[in-house]
Amino acid sequence: MEKTNRETLIEVKNLKKYFKIKRNVFVQAVDDVTFDIYKGETLGLVGESGCGKTTCGKTILGLYDATDGKVIFNGIDVHSLTPEEKKDFTKKAQIIFQDPYSSLNPRMTVGDIIGEGIDIHGLYKNKEREEKIFELLYTVGLNREHINRFPHEFSGGQRQRIGIARALAIEPNFIVCDEPVSALDVSIQAQIVNLLMDLQREKGLTYLFIAHDLSMIKYISDRVGVMYVGNLVELTTSKELYKNPLHPYTQALLSAIPIPDPKMEREKKRIPIKGEIPSTINPPIGCRFASRCKYVMDICKEAMPKLVEVDKGHFVACYLHHKEKAN
Amino acid sequence: MKRDKILDVKNLNVSFKTYAGVVQAVRGVDFYLKEGETLAIVGESGCGKTVTVKTIMGLLPEEQAIVNRDEGKIDFKGEDLLKYDDTKMTTIRGRRISMIFQDPMTSLNPTMKIGDQIAENIIIHERKSKDEARKDALNMLKLVNIPNAEERINQYPFEFSGGMRQRVMIAMALACSPEILIADEPTTALDVTIQAQIMELIGELQEKTNTSVILVTHDLGVVASVAHRIHVMYAGQIIEKGTVDEIFYSPKHPYTFALLRSVPKLSDDKQNRLYSIAGTPPDLINPPKGCPFAARCEFAMKVCRIKQPEVTSFGKTHESYCWLHHPKADKNEVPEILLRERVI
Lengths: 327, 344
Known about the structure:
The structure holds two protein chains of two kinds. Chain A has helices at 53-60, 83-92, 110-120, 126-139, 156-168, 186-203, 214-220, 238-243, 248-255, 262-267, 298-302, 319-326; strands at residues 8-22, 25-38, 42-46, 68-73, 76-77, 93-96, 174-178, 206-210, 223-228, 231-237, 308-311, 314-316. Chain A is α/β, with parallel strands linked by helices. In chain A, helix 3 runs parallel beside helix 5 (156-168). Chain A is globular and about 70 Å long. Chain B is of the alpha/beta class.
């Protein structure tokens, strides 16, 4: 499964996104995050709510301006584009939103929702445009009669399909999937995930897949990044992450996944995490997990550990493993 | 361990009047709950699991809900809750049966200090003085592991995180030591690490107080760790009942099987496609005449579309409603794929 020839599609370099809430008070939603996304892969981003994974995805797309750092897409910096270039960029990078209920305009027909991008970029006109929309509806498992209907006439799963068709309409090569299945039922989740994977195979798409469901992330991703309070704490292939998690937070997170198997569940030992998640308004200076970590050392509270490659392709931001490497 | 039945629900039917027509949300549900056990009701959204438990609590909107109060029965230690009016229900609700709701963000009163919210219950039901009730509330907060309970008791819900609010909800629900605790998707809005804490807490408290728990959820993972018995609901009906091991290791109904298969396991590889159930649940304004799952079932036979399946028992605790088990069915046995493909 290892790809030998990995071409980088997106480089995220020291990306920071702070939200101002008062004068001189900032929420450090994403703080100094660095990683690459390779062409044709699915990079999963997991973490608990409020850890900054959605903000990270949206900043990569330029939906938020970065506070600091760079996002290089195909050699160009996403955050210093002229309006002209920006339009060109949005044709290549799209997003599928979490909530299929609030992300579709209730007053637009399905045809217009899907066709909006086509119109903006002037890709197809009239008959051709209609044909293209039919084709997209068919691709996502809806049919041509749906073109004149409104979002409220569809179920959650169907609406998510409309959202996918909209993202695909302008033939992007990169899609941020922001929790695309968390609002859906299990049986419908599987339908949507299979659809996303089929599309990736057919069209060679690259995904940034954001989710809090660890089993789903493991299933769909080639590599997985774990976020905690605005930091990326571990990044490696999905197999390696679940087999050999290094960061204490990742370990605790993985042990908390409920397994749908009573016998395994009875034998399983959970690594408890005590305490509360620190606030992103005044996060601790050192490692942000230090206050809840059972392996905490003095150095953890003094300076934030850097994300270091400790094994081939396995990055972790934790002093426990940095030391090992130095020795 | 011999345990007595504490709750016995018989032939429960609930419908709702809507502009589009009458939605038959719960259609002939039967189940019982024993003392000290955890019963899980599992199903997808809209299958009627929440409506079922809200009927037990007497929390349905009177204007729209139609409940078959005459033919149905909710026997709670010899009292038929379906015959009770609202005044009589208040002596049961919150005191002998209480409920934890799905969304801890919206089910607490944002304008009341959490101490007062817990004490309210105690003052009403146990007729204690304000000071005593407050002491009890403090003990409850400590019981559910809220740090700095003495300070926290004077705070408002917005000052609590999601997991903490759910703890407050549990403290409130358990304040009058109820005999039955109904938990309606108690961890759906929470993160996995917090979810694990809350489920553990409910388990510990149950052991301490011997409360019976009805756990309503769509998450099969949560169920595996805590439930004793599981009922699977689909389109307003319970389609399979069994112990945890029976449901997970020898599911009988094609829907249960499909539900188990469509959850991604940690052992799954990207190479294998995720199993998905084609189609969507039926419209309950015009529910199908036959088995509600027939339209999505890969083993459906002619009879499935015409007639409701009858119950087939497999041992004392395991029941399934499916025509495949009928001796006269074309294929007399469970289809091979159900047996061949182990769930895990």
